[in-house]
Amino acid sequence: MTRTRLTAILTTSALIATGVVGTTSAHADDDPPGTEISAAAPVKVDPNDPDLKLPDGATLAQAKVLDIKSVVEDQSGDERREDTNTSVTFALQAEVLFGKDSAKLGAEAKSRITGIAEEIKNQNATRVRVFGFTDNLGSSAHGDVLSKKRANAVHDILTETLNDAGITYEVRGYGEQYPIADNSTEAGRKKNRRVEVSFPRTEG
Predict the structure, then answer these.
(1) Which of 61-75, 105-119, 148-162 is the least confident region?
(2) C or N terminus of the chain, fewer CB within 10 Å?
(3) Which domain holds residue 158?
(4) How many domains does the chain have?
């Protein structure tokens, strides 16, 4: 997929996350589907190690490893790619794919989706998720229906391009759920109107 310029690259390092029992932390249910942390802690943490300097009576929560994440967005912001050690996610803004309040794919859409299909093929992915999202304008029910129709339209191009019965697809419309930007501004709402395609990364 051709990009004229990269405007944002963000990488977070893999960390061993431990906490004191009784502290609160974000729950997986608060995150969009498909973003659950999947890696396992590579080392055992000794809870009696004096270098931990825990408060008296405190104990460690179970250790876990946060996925390495790399985020690349093209200059226009129309397309975003997120890579972790376990998966690849493409997010395409709705305006690039569809007309206003429409689920009919526009002229540019097929070439962009075909590029994603090539990456799915390169990763030998057998499971693909296609999720649609909207901003918070209009009714929630309308957003749910529109986001599902848009996800279905992208799914149709993927299946046509890949022509592979061995791939299992999960297609859903989440409407205004799981915004990635502030819905109080048009710039934020534009980012939230999107279709995401995600699939596992090839191991090794």
Answers:
(1) 61-75
(2) C
(3) 6-13+69-200
(4) 1
